[in-house]
Amino acid sequence: MTQRQYQAHIYVTLRRSVLDPAGTAVESGLKNMGYDNVTGIRIGKYVELSICASDEQQARNQLDRICDELLANPVIENYRFELTEVATVQKAEVNS
Amino acid sequence: MTQRQYQAHIYVTLRRSVLDPAGTAVESGLKNMGYDNVTGIRIGKYVELSICASDEQQARNQLDRICDELLANPVIENYRFELTEVATVQKAEVNS
């Protein structure tokens, strides 16, 4: 059975309508350091992981569920991901 | 005086040699949820911001300093960023 290995880069960000206290804190910190040409700071999560699946669609479906169930809070966060195939893995058939 | 506005996407990740407790916790959480085909989870920061500068090199130099001084801990973290020009801004010359 052929399995494909994918590298995923996932970006979890707060929805635009949600206040970003961390981003606001960084922005005022930068202003105190003299960087007043920097605005609109939004801070989110960047997740890298490796996933094995039979094809890309299965990998995408699983990543959607993983993001919805664990990595992102759908009420206040958005997510998007990029998927890159990195290897093909031959797995021995298990005859039951 | 012409100033250019850039949108920056910054990725701050732990160095490979550094243990990632958050990533390890998410990995075991996923295994408990039945996702045992997901490995190598690394969690970092994803920062979006807007920066005004006279040209791209000046924007890059400032972002390097901002990452070194505030957004990333150079001892345990790496950073990289992508820069996209989004607007050109005409600023009135201030005659002193």
Short description:
Chains A, B: One of its GO terms (molecular function) is ATP binding. The structure is a homodimer of 96-residue chains. Chain A has two helices and three strands; from the N terminus they run βαβαβ.
Give Rg of chain A in angstroms.
Answer: 19 Å
How would a textbook summarize the main sheet of chain A?
Answer: 3 strands, antiparallel
What's the structural domain tally of chain A?
A: 1
Q: What oligomerization state is this entry in? A: homodimer
> For the residues shown, what is the average pLDDT of chain A?
93
Strand segment tally of chain A: 3
Poorly predicted regions of chain A are none
Which two chains share the most extensive interface?
A-B, 31 and 31 residues
Q: What top-tier CATH class of chain A fits best?
A: Alpha Beta
CATH topology descriptor of chain A: Mth169, Chain: A
In whole angstroms, how far apart are the ends of chain A?
A: 15 Å
Shape of chain A: elongated
Summary tags:
homodimer, 96 residues, Mth169, Chain: A, 3-stranded antiparallel β-sheet, 2 helices, ATP binding (chains A, B), phosphoribosylformylglycinamidine synthase activity (chains A, B)
Q: How would you describe the overall organization of this protein?
A:
The structure is a homodimer of 96-residue chains. Chain A is of the alpha+beta class and 96 residues long. Chain A has one domain (2-90): Mth169, Chain: A, CATH 3.30.1280.10. In chain A, 29% of the residues lie in helices and 45% in strands. Chain A contains two helices and three strands, in the order βαβαβ. The first copy, chain A, has helices at residues 21-32, 56-71, and strands at 2-14, 38-53, 77-90. Chain A has a three-stranded antiparallel β-sheet with strand order 2-1-3. The first copy, chain A, is elongated, with a radius of gyration of 19 Å. The first copy, chain A, starts with a strand and ends in a 6-residue tail after the last strand. The mean pLDDT of chain A is 93. The A-B interface holds A 11-13, 23, 26, 29-30, 33, 35, 37-53, 62, 66, 69-71 and B 11-13, 23, 26, 29-30, 33, 35, 37-53, 62, 66, 69-71. β2 (38-53) of chain A pairs antiparallel with β2 (38-53) of chain B, so a sheet runs across the interface. Chains A, B: It is found in: Cytoplasm. Chains A, B: Keywords: ATP-binding, Cytoplasm, Ligase, Nucleotide-binding, Purine biosynthesis. Chains A, B: Part of the FGAM synthase complex composed of 1 PurL, 1 PurQ and 2 PurS subunits. Chains A, B: This is Phosphoribosylformylglycinamidine synthase subunit PurS. Chains A, B: Pathway: Purine metabolism; IMP biosynthesis via de novo pathway; 5-amino-1-(5-phospho-D-ribosyl)imidazole from N(2)-formyl-N(1)-(5-phospho-D-ribosyl)glycinamide: step 1/2.
